[in-house]
Amino acid sequence: MAGVSSLLYYNVADVLGVTVEVDGKGKLSGHTVRDIDFGGLPVEFRAKIVASRHVKGELLVLARVKGNLALLVESAFCSEGNGVTVHLLNLAKMDAPETWFDHHRPASAEQTLQLLGKAVVKSFKKVTKDSYVVAA
Q1: Residue 38 pLDDT grade (very low, low, confident, very high; cuts 50, 70, 90)
Q2: pTM for this one?
C-alpha cells in the first residue's frame, strides 16, 4: 500500500507472533497457535487477524485470541521509537470483530477506543521487545 510503512506491519507481526500477509486491497491476514506459560500451566492461544484499518498514519488490527478474548493492536509512528499499544478486549461487550471496522468506521485510534467503550478491559504499551507496561 502506498504511503504505509512496513514498520507498522512489522509491529503487528511482532506483537501477535504471526506472519502478516496483505492482499491487493490492503486487507491483513495472519494466524498462529502458541502456548503461553501461566505459572507452569501451558495455555494454547490461537491468534487470528480478523480485521484491520488504516487511520491517520496508524494501523489498527483486531485479532481473535481465545474464547471471548480479542486484541486490538495499535501500531503507530512516534518520537519515542516504539509506537505499539495492545488493548485487551471482551468480545461479549462488542459487535463481531470481523465487521467492527466496517460498521463503525472510526477516524482515529482514540475514537476507536471510545466506540469500543466497555469492551476494552485493559491496555498495555510496548516498551521493549518483550516487555509491556499498563497504559495510562
Answers
A1: low
A2: 0.87
